[in-house]
Amino acid sequence: MEQTSLLIIVGVIALALGFFIAKMLERSNASQIIKRAKKSAQSILKEATSEGESLKKDKILQAKEKFIELKSEHEKVILSRDKKISDAEKRTRDKESSVSSELSRNKKLNQSLEDKIKSYKERLDYVEKKKAEAEKMHKSTVQQLEVISGLSAEDAKHQLVETLKDQAKTDAMAHIQTAMEEAKMTAEQEAKKIIINTIQRIGTEEAVENCVSVFNLESDDVKGRIIGREGRNIRAIEAATGVEIIVDDTPEAIILSCFDSVRREVARLSLHKLVTDGRIHPARIEEVVNKTSKQIEQEIVEVGKRTVIDLGIHGLHPELIKAVGRMKYRSSYGQNLLQHSREVAKLCSVMAAELGVNPKLARRAGLLHDIGKVPDTETETPHAILGMQWAEKYGEKPDVCNAIGAHHDEIEMTSLLSPIVQVCDAISGARPGARRQVLDSYIQRLKDLEDIAFGFQGVKKAYAIQAGRELRVIVESEKVNDDRAGALSFEISQKIQTDMTYPGQVKVTVIRETRAVNIAK
Questions:
Q1: CA torsion, points 187, 188, 190, 194, in degrees to nearest 10?
Q2: What is the pTM of this model?
């Protein structure tokens, strides 16, 4: 028991001694750590101070460089601004000098103009004075003549006109009779002239190229059936269509000649149907020609519809669509009217888009600008004004109507669309090779020939054939008898001779046919 207690006491003492020794060792290690930490802190502080000084110097140096750079840029800006100001001042001085010289020149021009106006006024006063004196002298002379002759000026004028009219009629009839006698006596000489004029006409290739169509045949045997017995079939086709049919030695082909492309197309399609069907006689010919004419009218409408769809034009009146389709069979100076109008429409669209104008409206005006050329009949109204009237009638917008009417300066332009259409029309028509003046004048001469015939009472149809060398006139048998037909031929020939200018001679043939038709039911 005592031994155990001793061991416990010794253990406690040893434990306390160990704890004391551990504390002493721990305190000694802590002091060493603290010393090392202080030493390390001093070293770090010294390095931080050194780095801070170095960084401070770098920043100061960078700040100085930036300041120098900004100062240099500022000086450049100031120099550039000073230079601009000096240039502006120089330009201002130059403008002031130019304005002053212009003012002095204008003053001189104004003075010169005032002097001229003053001179013109003096001359005008002098002329008016002389005019008044001349009128006074004229009145005095007329009064003296009236007193001497015993007639008033109006009565004398009337007698003179009547005398001259009777004398002119007598001289004209004598001249006509003399000319006819000379023509009979010099028939051979006139025939030579006709041959020479024919050769000269053939030299105009443009008219031939645009006024004939070649109709191909399967064999030359068909030519005889087209001609018919004693030529009755070919005469019936020519009378029904107004197209001259030329049957020559060309193998497996005949030529259709006419200045009107619609008539020529009707004749071509009619011949195709007749040859395909095989039945060729006058009654069948008239029936086929009538059906083909209606078919061409329908085709014209289809061409107009396709054209407006291709160009993206909507809401066009049916009559205007039909007019657009008819352009396919019209030409202006040898240029196809539909192709020209499509080209102008596309040019207008592009130009309007560049100028900030509605391209759809411009395309519409470009397509319709020449619809006044579509009618068959000649009128006193210019085609631009006629086209504008049509457009107004069928509900087109005012800008489009003005562009149509003003593209040849017949009326004043009221919108930017009008000069665009005018310029594009000139671009399409004035380019080299676009138009041929010869063909247009040739076609106009043939139309004038037909119009002269239609100006006489009783004329039913009139066709200019043989390149304008012959005019065939079909009259109504109820209104024109045989004697009147001969007189009508003479009157038409005299009217052509008086009103027209043409090479060679024009043969006028008047055809009168009597038909008796009854239907058995």
A1: 130
A2: 0.44
Residue whose tokens read 């106006």: 117
- Residue pair 339/428 in contact by the 8 Å Cβ criterion: no
Q: How far apart are CA 514 and CA 488, in angstroms?
A: 17
Which band of pLDDT confidence, cut at 50, 70 and 90, is reported for residue 438? low
Cα–Cα separations (whole angstroms), residue 79 to 69, 73, 92, 236:
15, 10, 20, 97
Q: Is pLDDT of 202 > 60?
A: no
| Separation in Å, CA 367 to CA 372, 427, 430 | 12, 14, 17
Determine contact, residues 445/500, Cβ cutoff 8 Å. yes
Q: Tell me how far apart the alpha carbons of residues 381 and 378 are, in angstroms, rounded to a whole number.
A: 9
CB 259 within 8 A of CB 464: yes
Q: CB neighbours of 170 closer than 8 A, spacing ≥ 6?
A: none
pLDDT of residue 146: 65
Cite the DSSP H helix spans in 186-317: 187-202, 205-211, 221-227, 232-241, 261-277, 282-310
pLDDT of the residue at 60: 86
Residue 209: exposed, middle, or buried by beta-carbon count in 10 A (0-12, 13-18, 19+)? exposed
Q: Are 245 and 267 in contact (CB under 8 A)?
A: yes
Model pLDDT for residues 497-515, shown as the tens digit of each residue = 888 876 667 888 888 887 7
